Automatic annotation (TrEMBL):
PANTHER family: GH17801P, LUNG SEVEN TRANSMEMBRANE RECEPTOR. Signal peptide: none annotated. It comes from Caenorhabditis remanei (Caenorhabditis vulgaris). Residues 282-527 form the GOST seven transmembrane domain. It is a multi-pass membrane protein. GO terms for cellular component: cytosol; Golgi apparatus; membrane. Its main location: membrane. The lineage of its organism: Eukaryota, Metazoa, Ecdysozoa, Nematoda, Chromadorea. InterPro entries: GOST_TM, GPR107/GPR108-like. This is GOST seven transmembrane domain-containing protein.
Length: 626
């Protein structure tokens, strides 16, 4: 058997294969999201080709929004980033000591200079069991060498790395010049003599630098010998990815064959700042900053809502809910990372709860963008049947997101990769449907506002469309950078920057949220963004009549008949011009009312006039009776 605590890290970004063409891109992305392997060269060429086709279509369209419809598929593909799995600072493995077999346990960790490693053994103090143990600690500049390996490769590498003859060699799949290496002396441990607990003594010397050359790693047969206060065993001299291989060999066994021969091996990696790995440490500071940032956003939003509480729009309540959920989400992640840094282990269930809260925030944010793009409260007073569709899509997205998130954080083994990818497939399909809905609704709303000539609301939606376009472009550029520097290289030397793959999507989300907050912020002229039936309906009816009449059969003939000759015709023309001037004056007055006087005040004034007229009519009736 091969006891090994798997700590593989996800690749920094989504693993998709895309081809040119919009609908082909959707199909390939959905299928390749659940594929365990892919051709990265094909991925790069296909993605570049797809980007070229997409933005060529955008530039060729007369309307920018209509071109944006084709960009939503890239956004759906690029918006699903692989989350950064937390690496525990304390690893525990239970090993059964067997006669005639030895155990090899491998524990990788990203560490900074000054990190100390403690190795502790725990066994039954009443059992007369003796075993020999030793370990090898070596470094690598490549993140993928120790983490992203398959089971058979791990088995081969354990034997290869522990073999003392290979201290100057590395697998031929990697190419670098030197490592830091240390091999401990053999220690004999007696469970009864050590009272069931033994801490590996301090090293006999520091780790040394070795010049290495690539060699081929021989295959290991499956039925070969089995693999399977702070007192540091070694101190890390330089930053790098380290791999500790522990060997345990049974030496003396109890006469009772049913006696407990299990040994619990605990490896603790403690850096100067705590137990977090060097890859996860920047995310602790990042989540602290995000908590403060979301708290500031919440305070600012509450202040403006209280200041203009009489004119609050419905959509501004949704924005506040998204801010609160974002703050709670960051608080959960900060709690998880802080606990891991302080204790070296995670509290059961906290990470799962954080993922569920994150899914609630994502669901609320997508629902918010949908109701913004359909014009809820701006060009239409109520959603109607759209409300049921939005609720159904939001519920489906939340369920799929929760399943994918819990599967991702609960199963941290390479063997569970395929299960994670199948769990993510429904989520990706739902994301694509939502993105398509967002951009088509945005195009329809902008078209309606353009027909109504409502420049105030039209400018708001144009700014929002430009924000989404920038988000798509930023996502494409970032994913290209991530693939070039984090996915394609066999030796990923910039492993210290992997935290950016997680942080970028949080920052991009905050950017979009801030833009929405600015565009739909509470103000004293809040009602200029709200639905106004007097202006919107009348203009809408006139526009619809004009469009309908223009396409009606015989419309040109009828207009020609009405434009006869003579004095009567001139009078009709003058009357029409006079009526047009009056209509234009009325429109200017209505436009001024919409831009300068809130609807609530206008309603109050109109209601007051109605009351005065009613009082006067009553007085007139009373005077007649007298």
């Amino acid at each position: 058997m091969f006891p090994f605590r798997q700590t593989s890290r996800p690749a920094g970004g989504p693993q998709y294969v895309v081809k040119s063409g919009v609908y082909t891109t959707v199909t390939i992305a959905a299928l390749c999201r659940v594929s365990q392997t892919f051709n990265v060269r094909l991925l790069l060429s296909a993605l570049i080709q797809s980007i070229f086709v997409t933005f060529s279509q955008i530039m060729a369209e007369k309307s920018f929004i209509s071109g944006m419809k084709t960009a939503i598929f890239l956004l759906a593909i690029l918006g699903h980033a692989a989350a950064n799995l937390l690496m525990p600072g304390i690893y525990t493995e239970v090993v059964e000591i067997q006669q005639g077999k030895y155990q090899l346990i491998g524990v990788p960790q990203a560490s900074l200079n000054g990190t100390v490693v403690q190795l502790e053994y725990t066994c039954d103090p009443d059992v007369e069991l003796e075993f020999d143990t030793e370990y090898v600690l070596r470094s690598s500049p490549c993140d993928k060498e120790f983490f992203n390996t398959k089971e058979n490769e791990r088995r081969q590498n354990l034997v290869f790395y522990f073999n003392e003859t290979n201290q100057n060699h590395i697998p031929d799949t990697f190419d670098y010049n030197e490592i830091v290496y240390y091999k401990s002396p053999i220690q004999t441990i007696s469970c009864k003599g050590s009272h069931g607990r033994f801490v590996f003594p301090s090293p006999t010397g520091p780790m040394t630098v070795k010049q290495v050359t690539p060699v081929h790693v021989d295959r290991v047969k499956r039925d070969a010998n089995g693999l399977g206060s702070f007192h540091p065993a070694q101190s890390i001299p330089r930053d790098g990815i380290y791999y500790m291989i522990i060997k345990v060999v049974g030496k003396s066994f109890p006469l009772n064959q049913n006696a407990n021969t299990n040994v619990t091996i605990s490896v603790q990696w403690k850096a100067p700042y705590g137990f977090l790995s060097a890859i996860d440490w920047p995310l602790l500071r990042f989540y602290k900053i995000m908590c403060v940032f979301y708290s500031a956003l919440a305070l600012i939003w509450v202040y403006y809502c209280i200041k203009y509480y009489r004119d609050i729009l419905r959509i501004q309540y949704w924005i506040g809910a998204v801010i609160v959920l974002g703050m709670v989400e960051k608080a959960f992640f900060l709690s998880e990372y802080a606990t891991m840094n302080d204790t070296g282990s995670s509290i059961d269930g906290i990470l799962e709860i954080a993922e569920i809260v994150s899914c609630a925030k994502k669901t609320m944010s997508r629902v918010l963008v949908i109701i913004v793009t359909v014009g809820y409260g701006v060009v239409k007073p109520r959603l109607g049947q759209t409300l049921n569709q939005v609720a159904a899509v939001g519920l489906v997205y939340f369920i799929f997101c929760s399943i994918e998130g819990i599967a991702r954080v609960s199963k941290n083994t390479v063997e569970a990769t395929r299960q994670k990818q199948f769990a993510a497939l429904p989520l990706v399909l739902t994301e694509m449907i939502i993105f398509y809905w967002i951009f088509t609704s945005l195009a329809a709303t902008i078209r309606m506002l353009r027909l109504k000539r409502n420049d105030v609301k039209l400018n708001v939606y144009r700014h929002f469309a430009n924000t989404l376009a920038f988000s798509v472009l930023a996502s494409v550029v970032f994913m290209l950078w991530s693939m070039i520097y984090h996915i394609f290289p066999t030796c990923r030397v910039d492993w210290k920057e992997l935290w950016v793959d997680t942080a970028f999507w949080h920052v991009l989300f905050c950017f979009i949220l801030i833009v929405i907050m600015i565009l739909w912020r509470p103000s004293q002229n809040n009602q200029r963004y709200a639905f106004t039936p007097l202006l919107d309906d009348s203009e809408d009816e006139n526009d619809q009549d004009e469009i309908f009449n223009a396409f009606a059969p015989g419309y040109d003939i009828l207009t020609a008949r009405t434009s006869g000759s003579g004095a009567e015709t001139r009078k009709l023309r003058e009357a029409e011009k006079e009526q047009e001037r009056k209509d234009e004056a009325i429109k200017e007055d209505l436009r001024w009312i919409e831009e300068n006087i809130p609807t609530t005040i206008a309603d109050t004034l109109i209601g007051g006039l109605d009351d005065n007229e009613e009082i006067e009519s009553k007085q007139l009736e009373v005077s007649k009776m007298l």
